Amino acid sequence: MQRLNAITFKQLRALDAVCQSGAISTAAEMLSLTPPAVHSQLRALEEVFGCALVNRGQGGFAPTEQGAALLTAFRTARAALERAVHQIETLGKGLSGTVVLGVVSTAKYFAPHLVAMLRSEFPDIDVVLRIGNRARIIQMIETGDLDLVIMGRPPRLPAVVARSIGDHPHLLVAPPGHPLTRIAQVTPDDILSQPFVMREPGSGTRILTMRFLDEIGEGREFAYTEMESNETIKQAVAAGLGVAILSGHTVHEELKSGRLVSIPAERLPIVRHWFVLHAAGQELSQPAIRIMDWIVSNPDRFLPGGARSAARF
């Protein structure tokens, strides 16, 4: 209890920001503090526990085992406090309040437009957008940081309640004039002979790509390069560094402009679905219910190509 009384919210926010950004200077910017102030908060917190809470490696600062345990507790407590604040605001204003909407990186190409539409439809509801790769979004579901989530395949854990929105086609894309565009019937061997550009571990698009290539190649090895964003992958493919499997909604504009082309082949496109979901057992606020119902009822208004877009790619 004595240690608990010595901990401050500012110290925990400093630890969270440093571990999230990997750098004290970036964490200071996030918190509108000076780097020495962030360092001081971190040192004070480590003195309370008598152990290191972060380690510095090649990729920047990362939590130690003790730091990770403290971060999990802090994020859970912060999410609970935010829910309490939202609930109090909603009680005070009727159906008004805040809804935190998390989306996977692939959805960021239509998510801002969706949020703009939601704010227009529901001016009394403040819709806050959070974007991350699949692993990060799942982590935020676990810690209760999100009211609603838009993503592809729902996770097995944590348990969620999911409602389908519409098609989520994935295409094999290449630059115009690529050798695959001159083959009448593209075979698995043709596909596996190409260098691939794919997302980082933890990305849903990477999981889908690896699974597809493993299936058509029956475990055969293939060459690939990792990149950490869909934008970088699109630029790499356009520059001729390889081919990629990407969401049709990610490359919608590039296909329209002719900067990239879709390669037709057996089992392509890979058609998955978009879902809007929330953690099972989570009691949704009235604003969150209104937002979720609107998203399910109006996919044609925000999904590129509409709810049945697979046939258009």
Q: How would you explain this protein's 3D organization?
A:
The structure is a single chain. The chain starts with a helix and ends in a 16-residue tail after the last helix. It contains twelve helices and eleven strands. It is an alpha/beta fold and 313 residues long. It is 43% helix and 21% strand. The longest helix has 29 residues, at 65-93. The chain folds into three domains: 2-70, Winged helix-like DNA-binding domain superfamily/Winged helix DNA-binding domain (Arc Repressor Mutant, subunit A), CATH 1.10.10.10; 77-167 and 273-312, 3-Layer(aba) Sandwich (D-Maltodextrin-Binding Protein, domain 2); 168-271, Periplasmic binding protein-like II (D-Maltodextrin-Binding Protein, domain 2, 3-Layer(aba) Sandwich), CATH 3.40.190.10. Strands 3, 4, 5, 6, 9, 10 and 11 form a seven-stranded mixed beta sheet that branches. A two-stranded antiparallel ribbon has the order 1-2. The mean pLDDT is 91. Belongs to the LysR transcriptional regulatory family. GO terms for molecular function: DNA-binding transcription factor activity; transcription cis-regulatory region binding.
- Spell the H/E element sequence: HHHHEEHEHEHEEHEHEHEHEEH
Per DSSP, what share of the residues sits in E-state strands of 2 or more residues? Answer: 15-25%
**Global structural class:** alpha/beta
Described by strand count, sense and barrel closure, the largest sheet is: 7 strands, mixed
Overall 3D form = globular
Number of helical regions? 12
**Could you list the spans in which at least 5 consecutive residues all have pLDDT below 50?**
none
CATH topology of the largest domain: D-Maltodextrin-Binding Protein, domain 2
Provide the helix percentage. Answer: 40-55%
How many strands in all?
11
Radius of gyration: 22 Å
First-residue to last-residue Cα separation? 60 Å
In the CATH scheme, the class of the largest domain would be Alpha Beta
Count of the domains: 3
| Average predicted confidence as pLDDT | 91
**CATH superfamily name of the largest domain?**
Periplasmic binding protein-like II
